[in-house]
């Protein structure tokens, strides 16, 4: 899907020859709020994990403005690495599962913390609609498709730490945003943007263990924008 997004962007570039269009490039610096929820079910037992972490975010974006109101954009976003942590319980005998079986309850003989870094990137293709409030101030909305990818573990590992086979998973979801821009010179502008992307995944590795795992990862980005029009 990532290469499909890049291919669509390349196909649309020749449209610039049919009209006097403006191009833009932007740098986005801000914070990502990562709302993560993970659940694993095993023998009618459920293990849950949730967190709300803030990470540093970075993005770059290029766009083609077709009219005073509509632009086509392609961007790359680095949402940072969340320092999540889960607890591992050790039972006797050692092959006992990491959470309780059925109605039987056994106290672990020891516990330790396992760091689970969650690092996420996304490539986004979308449409920007904008309108001017004043001569130098405009508001905008964006809507499009994001191809996201985890650079290490997914949130599924927070409730099933042995699941190392979920590494570097990717997928596609819708994103949308609202923003404000201020033109400071003929070519330079600054702005602010708030965006949201929701990831909902469900996995069951039947060939390995058949244990169903689900997770949700809501990424809320607040970013300052430095842009250049040419």
Automatic annotation (TrEMBL):
UniProt keyword Repressor present: no
Phylogenetic classification of the source organism: Bacteria, Pseudomonadati, Pseudomonadota, Gammaproteobacteria, Alteromonadales
Residue span(s) of domain Outer membrane protein beta-barrel: 26-206
Protein name: Outer membrane protein beta-barrel domain-containing protein
Keyword Transferase tagged: no
Family annotation (SUPFAM superfamilies): OMPA-like
Superkingdom of this protein's organism: Bacteria
Species of origin: Pseudoalteromonas citrea
Protein keywords: Signal
Gene3D superfamilies: 2.40.160.20
Extent of the signal sequence: 1-19
InterPro entries, alphabetized: Beta-barrel_OMP, OMP/PagP_B-barrel
């Amino acid at each position: 899907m990532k290469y499909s997004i890049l291919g669509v962007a390349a196909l649309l570039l020749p449209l610039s020859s049919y009209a006097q269009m403006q191009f833009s490039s932007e740098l986005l610096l801000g914070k990502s709020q990562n709302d993560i929820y993970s659940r694993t079910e095993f023998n009618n037992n459920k293990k849950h994990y949730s967190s709300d972490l803030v990470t540093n975010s970075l993005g770059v974006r290029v766009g083609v403005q077709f009219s005073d109101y509509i632009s086509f954009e392609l961007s790359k976003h680095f949402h940072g690495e969340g320092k999540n942590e889960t607890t591992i319980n050790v039972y006797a005998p050692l092959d006992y599962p990491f959470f309780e079986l059925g109605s039987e309850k056994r106290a672990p003989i020891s516990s330790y913390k396992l760091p689970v870094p969650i690092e996420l990137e996304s490539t986004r293709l979308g449409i920007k609609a904008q309108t001017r409030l004043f001569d130098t101030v405009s508001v905008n909305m964006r809507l499009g498709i994001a191809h996201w990818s985890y650079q290490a573990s997914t949130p599924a590992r927070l409730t099933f730490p042995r699941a190392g086979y979920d590494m570097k998973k990717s997928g596609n979801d819708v994103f949308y945003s609202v923003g404000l821009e201020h033109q400071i010179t003929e070519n330079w502008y600054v702005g602010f943007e708030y965006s949201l992307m929701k990831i909902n995944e469900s996995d069951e590795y039947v060939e390995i263990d058949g244990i169903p795992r689900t997770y949700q990862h809501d990424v809320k980005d607040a970013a300052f924008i430095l842009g250049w029009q040419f």
